[in-house]
Amino acid sequence: MIDRIHIEQLEVHGRVGVPDSERAEPQRLSLNVTLWPKIAELHDDIENTVNYSAVAECAKEFVSRHDYKLIETLAEETAAHLLAQFNLRKVAVEVRKFVLPDANYVSVTAVREDEAT
């Protein structure tokens, strides 16, 4: 059984920020996404797991289509979307935003679990 799949620092572009000026143009963001698939046995077959390439594309598309004031909301909504789209027990999405001049980034992590699990 796979414990988890992790996508580190997926570059995405989205509109997020409290001031309208910050959401005027898409900005570079970074996502760290951890997936816990529902599949128990792999048998070396991609159909028995979660295709992380498809997850990455889905996350990039989702972020590019939405406009949020808070990175908390972006993290929550992205996690919920991935959980609904893929065969997952659990997902964690960390959104990193590069806005503070004296810090590498600000981040928020949202963790969502399938209620049926």
Structure write-up:
By secondary structure, the chain is α+β, with helices and mostly antiparallel strands. It contains three helices and five strands; from the N terminus they run βαβαβαββ. It has a five-stranded mixed sheet with strand order 3-1-2-4-5. The protein is elongated, with a radius of gyration of 15 Å.
Task: Describe the SSE topology.
Elements: E1 5-16, H1 20-23, E2 27-37, H2 52-65, E3 67-68, H3 71-85, E4 88-97, E5 106-113
Parallel strand pairs: 1-3
Antiparallel strand pairs: 1-2, 2-4, 4-5
The number of distinct helices, counting runs of at least 4 residues, comes to: 3
Strand order of the largest sheet: 3-1-2-4-5
Average pLDDT confidence is: 93
The CATH topology is GTP Cyclohydrolase I, domain 2
Helicity, as a percent range: 25-40%
Strand portion:
35-45%
Q: What is the number of strand segments?
A: 5
Uncertain regions spanning at least 5 consecutive residues: none
Principal-axes shape call? elongated
**Into how many domains do the coordinates divide?**
1
Assigned CATH architecture:
2-Layer Sandwich
Distance between termini? 15 Å
Q: What CATH first level would be assigned?
A: Alpha Beta
| Largest beta-sheet characterization | 5 strands, mixed
Question: Rg, please?
Answer: 15 Å
Secondary structure class reads alpha+beta
Order of helices and strands: EHEHEHEE
Per CATH, the superfamily is GTP cyclohydrolase I, C-terminal domain/NADPH-dependent 7-cyano-7-deazaguanine reductase, N-terminal domain
Can you describe this structure in just a few lines?
The chain is of the alpha+beta class and 117 residues long. It contains three helices and five strands; from the N terminus they run E-H-E-H-E-H-E-E.
